Each structure stands twice: as C-alpha cells, then as structure tokens.
From TrEMBL:
InterPro entries recorded: Ribosomal_bL9, Ribosomal_bL9/RNase_H1_N, Ribosomal_bL9_bac/chp, Ribosomal_bL9_C, Ribosomal_bL9_C_sf, Ribosomal_bL9_N, Ribosomal_bL9_N_sf
Sequence ranges of Acidic residues compositional bias: 184-209
Originating species: Martelella endophytica
Taxonomy, superkingdom: Bacteria
Name recorded for this polypeptide: Large ribosomal subunit protein bL9
HAMAP family: Ribosomal_bL9 (MF_00503)
Gene label: rplI
Stretch list, region Disordered: 153-209
Length: 209
C-alpha cells in the first residue's frame, strides 16, 4: 500500500513523502496512529492544505520528546530478578518490563518506543534504546541484578558472574589442572582402600593404649 507520511518515520521517509509499505503495517500502525494517510488525490490535497499545521505539531512533539530525553540522559534503572549463580535469569526482562520500570519512575513510554531486539536473560548492566520521537533517541542503562545491593556493586563496575564473585577466587590465577589433571593416576577403589587402611591403623593404635 502507498501512504503519505504525516511525520518522519525512521528508515521509511520524511514528512510529506509517498512511500510503499506492507498493508498490515499501514492498517495496524501507520494509519490508526495518525502517522500516515492513504496515498490518493484527495489525501494529497488534504496534506498540502494542512502541511503548516502538521509541521508545527511535529515540532511541538519533538520539543516535548527532547525535554524527556534531557531528563532521562545518564539515568540508570534497576530491575531485580531471580537468577542463578552464573547470572542466568530464571526468566527474562522484556520491553514491557522496561515500560513498567520507567512508568514507576514517572516516565510514560509506549511499547513501540522501546527498542529491545531480544529479551535480557542475564544479570548485568545493559543498554536499552528509547525512541521518544522520530528525531529524538536516547540510550538508558538497565541494571539487572538479584538484589538492590548487587545492583549497587554492578554500578561500581563489579562483575557478579566472574569466578571471583561466585567462588571467591581470582579466575585469572586459575589453571586447567586446578580443576582436572588427565595424567593423574586416580582410582576411586584405591582411595577407598587407603581410607579403610588408615581407619584400621587408627583402631589398632587405640587398642594398644
């Protein structure tokens, strides 16, 4: 379907341009959201008659979006989620979660403004893009942690998924042989027999007393 854009749409075109889009995209988003008109003679005439009003409205929305962007700039938000020792979440943080977190801080952001290509599935400090307007974009930090205390540690640069954080050891100092030595002559039966012999010797010493 061909439509006339009533505002700039990223990766699609500028206000006033006639572009071809998928029918579903036009019917389900562009047209009902008031971002485009069907491309026909009547709507082209309508657009030209209302161009100055549309441009003024777009400028107003852009300025409003920029004000929100100025407040959001440099902010970090915390998402507390259950996760294992390695940092893998027992679920995920999706765009709807980002919306709820921002709403709790007083920011009214819609689903289509959050750019999250895939749900977040690990603890850590993640960057999330927010498109407040076709010409106003900002990136926020989402600090995903098991507790607020861990979030504070992550904010200071600590990696909670490192071996040092999990096991209390310096992972840079670990060697493969610290975990498993393929050349070692290890036999569980020998170890059991040795333990048994030590026990018998201890018993004999006790009897001698």
């Amino acid at each position: 379907m061909e439509v006339i854009l009533l505002e700039r749409i990223a990766k699609l075109g500028q206000m006033g341009q006639t572009v071809k889009v998928r029918d579903g995209y036009a019917r389900n988003y562009l047209l009902p959201a008031g971002k485009a008109l069907r491309a026909n003679a009547a709507n082209k005439a309508r657009f030209e008659a209302e161009r100055s009003v549309l441009e003024a409205r777009n400028l107003e929305r852009k300025n409003e979006a920029q004000e929100v962007a100025d407040v959001l700039a440099g902010k970090s938000f915390i998402a507390v989620r259950a996760a294992g020792e390695t940092g893998q979440l027992y679920g995920s943080v999706a765009a709807r979660d980002v919306i709820e977190i921002l709403a709790a801080e007083g920011f009214n952001i819609s689903r289509n403004q959050v750019v999250l290509n895939a749900p977040i599935k690990t603890v850590g400090v993640h960057e999330v893009e927010i498109h407040l307007h076709a010409e106003v974009e900002i990136t926020i930090e989402l600090n995903v942690a098991r507790t607020t205390e861990e979030a504070e540690r992550q904010a200071k640069g600590e990696d909670l998924t490192s071996a040092e954080a999990i096991y209390g050891v310096d992972e840079d100092a670990l060697r493969p042989e610290d975990f498993f030595n393929p050349d070692a002559d290890y036999d569980i039966e020998d170890e059991q027999e040795e333990a048994s012999a030590e026990g018998e010797e201890a018993g004999e010493e006790e009897d001698d007393k």
